[in-house]
Task: inverse folding
């Protein structure tokens, strides 16, 4: 049977600041992120299955991504946990949805994190093929399983 790729797109808003960066992104600023998730697998061939012909139900994929990415990161302020404690405390005063990450919150690092989270929740017969995280209208990062 043929291997097929399916793709679903997700949107979330988040702000971040890049610790130690030498440009304007060292300041808190926001993005309208677009996450594209592509999985690969063989369509279900069991004629008795309600999901016959599907690699994975798009609704099931949506539930996974919403749970581990969108619901967690949407309208959050993403900060590197290495930020000095006084600055973390300062940001914590006006904001109530701060996520401290063990990495610099760049699109590249976010994709590595997202890939690890998503792979753990996919059914065994489905594989994560690629991720794309669009940060602006002209800038995005991509993660491909074949590269890792």
Result:
């Amino acid at each position: 049977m043929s291997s097929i790729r399916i793709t679903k797109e997700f949107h979330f808003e988040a702000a971040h600041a890049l610790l130690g960066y030498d440009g304007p992104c060292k300041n808190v600023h926001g993005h309208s992120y677009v996450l594209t998730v592509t999985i690969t697998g063989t369509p279900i061939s069991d004629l008795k299955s309600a999901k016959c012909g599907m690699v994975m139900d798009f609704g099931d994929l949506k539930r996974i991504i919403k749970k581990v990415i969108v619901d967690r990161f949407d309208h959050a302020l993403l900060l590197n946990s290495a930020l000095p404690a006084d600055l973390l405390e300062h940001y914590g005063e006006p904001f109530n949805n701060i996520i401290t990450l063990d990495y610099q919150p760049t699109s590249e690092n976010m994709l590595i994190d997202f890939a690890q989270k998503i792979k753990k929740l996919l059914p065994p017969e489905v594989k994560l093929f690629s991720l794309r995280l669009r940060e602006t209208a002209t800038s995005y990062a991509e993660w491909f399983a074949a590269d890792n």
Notes: Strands lie at 4-16, 29-41, 76-80, 98-101, 127-136, 139-144. The domain at 4-147 is CATH 3.30.479.10 (Tetrahydropterin Synthase; Chain A). The first strand starts at residue 4 and ends at 16.
